[in-house]
Design brief:
The chain is 49% helix and 17% strand. The protein is built from 8 helices and 4 strands. Strands 2-3-1-4 form a 4-stranded antiparallel β-sheet. The longest helix has 19 residues.
Length: 191
């Protein structure tokens, strides 16, 4: 059976309002983000480029960074045809492992700018502004201004990204799978 499968290898992330949450946001954009890239144009992410040779069918792979009041989840979301899910997932995990060595200054600055655009886009609507500042107020005690957030993103270094990537890649993932799981790789095959 070749139905569409989805798998989420997730790891503990960072709490909203923390510097680590911003670093993981940059890491997400380095690998390949979801909503911001599809809203503002085609996604030519590292994840998509790495997985494309392994599939002849429609697929999706994106990095996710979900921040909550006192914790978060970080990982990748993959959807692919049944017999191709394993190869697409393994290629995506390989991209994440490759971030352990850091990235070029150009790639880092591009990812920071994408995160800034994401934040500015969230803060441009009243609903987004209320949700973001409300969550940050609960998590950090008070909301940060847009200028403070953008300034904090500017301070993120390649060393911050390397350390975050190593921390994420060295922690065992929690695999969440749904659909036809016949071709899903085992957790030990992803490490």
């Amino acid at each position: 059976s070749s139905g569409i499968n989805a798998e989420w290898p997730l790891r503990p992330g960072a709490a909203a309002g923390s510097h680590d949450a911003l670093v993981l946001g940059v890491l997400r954009h380095l690998a390949g983000s979801g909503v911001a890239s599809t809203k503002w144009g085609g996604s030519h992410s590292k994840l998509v480029a790495a997985a494309a040779p392994y599939t002849q069918n429609p697929f999706s792979t994106q990095c996710v960074n979900i921040n909550n009041v006192n914790s978060g989840m970080f990982g990748i979301r993959v959807s692919a045809a049944g017999e191709e899910i394993g190869d697409v997932l393994k290629a995506s995990v390989g991209v994440m492992a490759g971030l352990n060595t850091g990235v070029s200054d150009e790639a880092l600055n591009a990812a920071k700018n994408k995160l800034k655009l994401e934040i500015l886009s969230t803060y441009e609507s009243n609903v987004g502004l209320r949700a973001a500042t409300g969550l940050e107020s609960i998590a950090a005690g008070s909301p940060s201004s847009t200028a403070q957030l953008l300034g904090a993103i500017d301070t993120i270094t390649n060393d911050d990204v390397k350390e975050a990537a190593k921390r994420m890649n060295n922690s065992p993932p929690i695999l969440v799978s749904y659909g036809n799981v016949e071709h899903m790789p085992l957790q030990r095959e992803l490490q």
